[in-house]
Amino acid sequence: MLRTILAALALSAAALPAAAQSMSAKDPGRAFMEAIAMGTDTDRDRRLAPAEMRVLATAAFDLADADSNGVVTRTELEAADFGMNALAAHRGRGQAMETATALMFAFADRDHDGSIDGVEHAAAARLAADLADTDGDGAMSYAEFYDGYMFNMAYRAALHY
Ligand SMILES: [Ca+2]
Ligand SMILES: [Ca+2]
Ligand SMILES: [Ca+2]
Q: Quick one: which ligand is closest to 140's CA?
């Protein structure tokens, strides 16, 4: 189901530049992350529990694994669009997005073999969640997710939201 949400968000991301030009108080990058958080928080307790994050991480991995062979290569990750590419292009931040993507790839590809396997991906997702969980309650609040989840930080730095 989350995969469907991600796919729908990726499609709606084409509308992000238009939204950015509107009077909307919220940055579209931030609004997009909030939509991701709400889509992930299936029990609606405003905490992203490890089981919920595993669903999100798996959906993201499957989306990036274009040839469905169980590993994500650098090329696949560079080609993947998690919904932010249109916004990056609109803001002239394509180069910054490439750097952010390279950093995320390096974070996950711990054995430097040029691809992220399932074990590496699960470890990276868990590490990122642990790092973000600053109050140590075992789950991410939405604020912890926005401000401290590594993949959000990389996008935020790239897209200036
Ligand atoms: Ca693949
Ligand atoms: Ca690897
Ligand atoms: Ca927490």
A: 3
Burial 104-129 (b: 16+ CB within 10 A, else e): bbebbbeeeeebbbeebbeebbeebb
Q: Which of 81, 88, 64 is nearest to 8 (CA)?
A: 81
Q: Which residues of 45-54 are buried (b: 16+ CB within 10 A; e: fewer)?
A: eebbbeebbe
How far, in Å, CA of 92 to CA of 114, rounded?
28
97-115 pLDDT, tens per residue?
999 999 999 999 999 999 9
Q: Is 140 helix (H, G, I), strand (E, B) or coil?
A: strand
**CA 158 to ligand 1 center in whole angstroms:** 25
Q: Cα separation of 94 and 101, whole Å? A: 10
Point out the ligand nearest to the CA of residue 46.
3
Q: How far is the CA of 60 from the centre of ligand 1 (A)?
A: 12
Confidence band, pLDDT 50/70/90 cuts, at residue 2? low
| Nearest listed ligand to the Cα of residue 138 | 3
Cα 120 to ligand 1 centre (Å): 14
Cα 140 to middle of ligand 3, angstroms = 4
